[in-house]
Amino acid sequence: AKxxxxxxxxxxxxxxxxxxxxxxxxxxxxxxxxxxxxxxxxAMCATCHVYVRPEYLDGLPEVxxxxxxMLECTAEPRDDSRSRLGCQIxxxxxxxxxxxxxxxxxx
Length: 107
Ligand code: FES
Fold this sequence. Notes:
Layout: E1 2-6, E2 12-16, H1 23-29, E3 49-52, H2 65-70, E4 83-85, E5 97-101
Parallel strand pairs: 1-5
Antiparallel strand pairs: 1-2, 3-4, 3-5
The protein binds FE2/S2 (inorganic) cluster.
FE2/S2 (inorganic) cluster (FES) binds near residues 24, 39, 48, 70 and 85.
């Protein structure tokens, strides 16, 4: 799946990500700046915060209660319509392409 990370300085990382991989894992594995993933993907740290580009919001899994709680703890302000935890979004047949904006700060 094609995953695009847009950074605040205008740089862009485009990855080809295997199915079943989360956005957080893909970013950390590939050295994408600005995604930390401190808790290892358990929705317990909020350092994998991303802003999903509006055109990709449809078809994402619902925000779970745990994710919703952690999204109140992000370093950069939550955007109610498009803030998500990168560890809670996996690419696969249901999600072949997504683009996100990476917050300037995660801690
Ligand atoms: Fe910790 Fe996503 S990696 S909440």
